[in-house]
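Lab channel / #folding
Pinned by the channel admin:
"Please post every new chain as: sequence first, then the structure tokens as a reply. Keep commentary short and put observations after the output so the thread stays searchable."

First post following the new format, from NK:
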Amino acid sequence: MLNYREMTAADNEAVAALIRDNLKQYGLDIPGTVYFDEGLDHLSEYYGKRERRYFVIEDDAGKVIGGIGYAAFEHMKDTAELQKLYLADCAKGSGLGYELIELIEKKMREAGFKQSYLETHDNLQAAIHIYEKCGYKEIPHPKEVGHSAMNRFFVKELYQ
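Reply from TO:
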């Protein structure tokens, strides 16, 4: 039985390792990605507020095998940015990516957001496939992007 819950400080190390491992696998352990963000090792300090939250999935043994978050995206009205959707290799291909997106979109709606925005990279084809299947539509490169290495941008209306 998998357990979905909000991230705590005890998860910081596991989540940072999960994110770095994934980025390295896809050649994205480069400047301009979250790989080098100073706050990556302390994500619980950033999340945990109404306008930004992060959730993890634990396996039966209590090991973090995935996570996803959101934060208000100030550059678009009533929009939250879907952030840091990552899965451990053992969880890939199991449908958990879709479940995490469904969970985070529900949390975004509960927080009052009307649209979801995300940034990704051509190297992450499996993620792009999931986003498109979940109804995300590609948009031109917004001038306000946070990570300069990202080159694909998507939005989705969050209907109530």
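NK: The chain has one domain: 3-157.
TO: also worth noting, The beta strands are 3-6, 52-58, 64-72, 79-87, 115-120, 137-139, 152-157.
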